[in-house]
């Protein structure tokens, strides 16, 4: 009997030991500790991940970054003028009436047209009066002394260069080189090309002054709003309708 009791006690102790082992293995605290230990071990042995390399973009000859729409290494092309130099009456579109106004101002009062062009380029206070008065003085001096408007183009040709640079327009020198291909050999860098374009702008204003002013006016009126035009949305507040009290 004593031996039987000892065997029964040994079996109970074994069962309790197994239950204790199962409880320890299924303990969430031990699992958390194990995961922490494993994570620490992973941190020590984890490979170093380098940050992704910055994507490099090419650059054009003009110093402008190549966008997604351009091919790497291919320079961005110039935009064309909206109307030709000798398109006196402009184009038959929604700006047709404005083109006729430009043609009339260029023929009768070129000082006013030049002043409005300068005002659209730079909306600083007094831009119109400063440019218009200066142009008027040079216009009358040139006509009085030399019989034709030969002094105002020396003052107004810079506006053509400013418009061409602002909207990335094709210049006269580049158009000549594209048509005949005989002028590109004398250009070595971008700075020299810009000097040639500025010279062509001056020659255009001297030889075709009125046509140049009208072409610039048509271009600006299609791309730049007049600084005096404030296109702001107006909020209209309506009063509440008349209300009456009903009786029940």
Automatic annotation (TrEMBL):
<dbReference type="Pfam" id="PF04749">
    <property type="entry name" value="PLAC8"/>
</dbReference>
<feature type="compositionally biased region" description="Basic and acidic residues">
    <location>
        <begin position="12"/>
        <end position="26"/>
    </location>
</feature>
<feature type="region of interest" description="Disordered">
    <location>
        <begin position="9"/>
        <end position="30"/>
    </location>
</feature>
<dbReference type="InterPro" id="IPR006461">
    <property type="entry name" value="PLAC_motif_containing"/>
</dbReference>
<protein>
    <recommendedName>
        <fullName>Cell number regulator 8</fullName>
    </recommendedName>
</protein>
């Amino acid at each position: 009997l004593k031996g039987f009791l000892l065997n029964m006690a040994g079996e109970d102790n074994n069962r309790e030991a197994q239950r204790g082992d199962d409880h320890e293995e299924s303990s969430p605290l031990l699992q958390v500790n194990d995961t922490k230990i494993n994570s620490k071990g992973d941190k020590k042995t984890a490979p170093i991940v380098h940050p992704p390399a910055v994507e490099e973009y090419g650059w054009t000859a003009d110093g402008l970054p190549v966008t997604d729409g351009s091919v790497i290494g291919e320079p961005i092309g110039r935009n064309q003028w909206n109307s030709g130099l000798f398109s006196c009456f402009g184009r038959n579109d929604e700006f047709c009436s404005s083109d006729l106004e430009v043609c009339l101002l260029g023929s009768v009062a070129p000082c006013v047209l030049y002043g409005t062009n300068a005002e659209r380029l730079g909306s600083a206070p007094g831009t119109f009066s400063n440019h218009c008065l200066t142009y008027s003085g040079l216009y009358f001096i040139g006509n009085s002394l030399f019989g034709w408007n030969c002094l105002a183009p020396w003052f107004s040709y810079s506006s053509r260069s400013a418009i061409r640079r602002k909207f990335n327009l094709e210049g006269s020198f580049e158009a000549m080189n594209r048509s005949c291909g005989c002028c590109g050999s004398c250009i070595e860098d971008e700075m020299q090309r810009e000097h040639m374009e500025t010279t062509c702008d001056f020659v255009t204003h001297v030889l075709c002054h009125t046509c140049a002013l009208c072409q610039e006016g048509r271009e600006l009126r299609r791309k730049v709003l007049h600084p005096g035009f404030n296109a702001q949305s107006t909020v209209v507040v309506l009063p509440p309708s008349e209300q009456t009290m009903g009786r029940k």
